[in-house]
Design a protein that fits this description.
eight-stranded mixed β-sheet, 14 strands, globular
């Protein structure tokens, strides 16, 4: 049997998000990068060297490239809607990074544009694609553990103290931990709860005048069937919940204890927003301080988004980097997953299924708009000091 014809992918935005998908795009035979665009000449040159791909200075030229049949939108949050509309107008299938957009109006416009053009829309990667959470959902769907009634999700990282561009510290532009990180956590919790959230009551932490956006949040979500979930995230960069995940980092690679505090140490070397933005750019794809990922660093475990506990009617579920622990009344069982052959292959599973097989994706436009709805409501609840 002939090998399947890979998706010919054009990438809009060669920054941090693209770098995190680089191993997937390089190693999964179902995709092939044929073109890319980025305002940074160094990033374009790196793509040409790495993939022999054509490069463009703007997104309009990329979506019209005849070699491109599907577009991966990895641009800054506030540009997602415009870039998806461009791709749809050129009748290119779309994978767009989370968050889908930063307003519900933009989400609706993106869905409409793709539907009108007859192209598929997948939103991700988010940690809602992670294999342990998908396994936990399959365990629930099998019926033996009963329905989820209560979910706890907690994650602490150094997210907000890594080098950032000014818009990444501006909530109105999609900055802060809510649009960037709650989009992950809400996706995970909604997947596990199996439904759409109906109410949100939240608080946010905006306590660092030098990082004038949300550093942290806590939220209580209710679902239509009566289940509820608590979500807490801190990007303050001290305690890291990877310590509670057997030392396995968010990307499935074992953490180096000597790296503790590294984000804040790097940040201490700069004094202005411009210098901070340069520090980030220098370490991004094609920059002078960028280090290509080694094939030896392919994760030995699955990605995750911190400790999660799902209390079901007849058992508790705890997703971990190598599977799911199932705690019953009299015994516990570790349902293991095989190590990932290709990181984030689940993202390509959905994209391939949507484009090549006509399978409706789980993380499509409607699903992801509902996740954005929770993020927007979280911010509104915190602003108003009441349930939304």
């Amino acid at each position: 049997m002939d090998a399947p014809r890979p998706l010919r992918v054009g990438v809009i935005g060669l920054g941090r998000a693209f770098t995190l998908m680089l191993a997937t795009l390089r190693e999964d035979p179902r995709v092939r990068i044929v073109a890319g665009c980025d305002p940074r000449a160094a990033a374009r040159a790196q793509l040409e060297r790495d993939f022999g791909a054509r490069t463009h200075e703007d997104a309009g030229a990329l979506v019209e490239d005849p070699e491109v049949e599907a577009v991966y939108v990895a641009s800054p949050h506030g540009l997602h809607a415009g870039h998806v509309r461009l791709a749809a107008a050129a009748r290119r299938h779309v994978l767009v990074e989370k968050p889908m957009a930063i307003t519900l109006r933009d989400c609706a416009d993106m869905i409409e544009a793709c539907a009108r053009a007859g192209v598929s829309l997948v939103v991700g990667p988010s940690h809602g694609f992670d294999a342990p959470y998908l396994l936990a959902r399959r365990i629930v769907d099998a019926g033996d553990v009963g329905a989820p009634r209560m979910i706890h999700a907690l994650n602490c990282t150094d997210f907000l103290y890594r080098p950032r561009r000014p818009e990444e510290l501006d909530t109105a532009a999609g900055g802060g931990v809510v649009f960037s990180q709650a989009a992950h956590q809400v996706d995970v919790v909604r997947l596990l709860a199996g439904g759409r959230a109906t109410r949100v009551h939240a608080a946010v932490g905006r306590w660092d005048p030098e990082r004038p956006t949300e550093v942290a949040y806590s939220a209580l979500l209710w679902f239509a069937d009566g289940a509820f979930a608590s979500l807490t995230y801190s990007g303050a960069g001290r305690f890291d919940t990877d310590a509670w995940m057997d030392g396995i980092g968010e990307l499935g690679v074992r953490r180096d204890p000597a790296a503790y505090g590294g984000a804040r140490r790097r940040l201490a070397t700069v004094r202005t927003p411009e210098a901070e933005a340069r520090l980030k750019a220098d370490a991004t794809y094609g920059g002078p301080a960028w280090t290509p990922p080694s094939k030896d660093a392919v994760p030995r475990a699955h990605e995750h988004f911190g400790p999660v506990l799902v209390a079901c009617e007849r058992a508790d579920l705890r997703p971990v980097p190598d599977g799911v622990w199932v705690y019953g009344d009299a015994a516990r069982e570790h349902r293991r997953l095989p190590p990932p052959r290709v990181p984030r292959a689940e993202v390509i599973d959905e994209w391939w299924g949507a484009v090549r097989e006509g399978v409706a994706p789980l993380h499509g436009g409607e699903w992801s708009m509902a996740t954005t709805e929770v993020c927007v409501a979280l911010l509104e609840s915190a602003r108003l000091g009441r349930e939304v």
